[in-house]
Amino acid sequence: MPTHYSGTREEVLALNTFIKLTRATESLLARLAQRNTHPGLTTSQFGVLETLYHLGPMCQSELGGKLLKSGGNITMVIDNLEKHGLVHRERGIEDRRFISVSLTDAGRKQIEDVFPGHVQAIIEEMSALTHEEQRSLGALCRKLGKAESS
Amino acid sequence: MPTHYSGTREEVLALNTFIKLTRATESLLARLAQRNTHPGLTTSQFGVLETLYHLGPMCQSELGGKLLKSGGNITMVIDNLEKHGLVHRERGIEDRRFISVSLTDAGRKQIEDVFPGHVQAIIEEMSALTHEEQRSLGALCRKLGKAESS
DNA sequence: TGATATTATTTCAATATCAAACGATTACAG
DNA sequence: CTGTAATCGTTTGATATTGAAATAATATCA
CA-to-CA distance for B51 and A5, rounded, in angstroms? Predict the structure, then answer.
């Protein structure tokens, strides 16, 4: 799906690369969503549980930083997870501005139940590329992701 | 930001590549959003206007297909664009199920005003990679994006 | 100490997003 | 020709998402 933009060769290359990158990522995420690897959890909720599971309890602003989401959003996602009894809020003791969010036993069980299947789905999707291609793609993404906005 | 998952080497490679891909794309999109290259338009609204501008009028389900969005979502985005007088709905004549969506003059002017700046921002962001790297990234994304869910 | 700045979270309004259910319309099989 | 199936758009309900404004707690510094 090339762009219909008529610019210099350099401009067309950048635009086409951008489109391929975003579409590949979006369609990959859509295929993963269709597999329903984390039933009963939204993608955001799964992201929070996974982060807490692998990195341990942390405050909401730190979660927002890791998941690239706004503070208001994290408040709502944690609200819904809390309603379902999957996470626990605890006001900081030394610095009472912070709220430490941690997994409940139910939350830990939930993420442990679904994570292996999620990983398996990712592995299957990524298997469209050879290992060498995966390493290459990772390196390019790393370089692009670190780019500074001028 | 490597994963903390302890699997086989192959599993870790796939997972890390996946994480790098999604994070690079998300942070790139976040940097573009910060540049505010399409003021007064949400990303979805901009996507619709751009699609109509480059591909001409089309019905809502086709828009949904191109933008990878659900039908209900397209209805709302078109609603908001119509409120602002940027697009126009027209019921199909032969097949009355379809609704053809087209740009109004105001919509055309709007997209023509902001599109060059948007392209420029993308070019600047993509310049973190050499032309060769961009071609390589594009090819890998193309291969990954086409992958079939097994 | 006290005014001010910073940080963390919440609230709110607007928009986005999906899935499921629904009504209108068309296609098609019998 | 007729009824069933498929398609399109809309609606609804739940959650997501952002940005801005409001709150609360802490830190800083004069």
Answer: 12
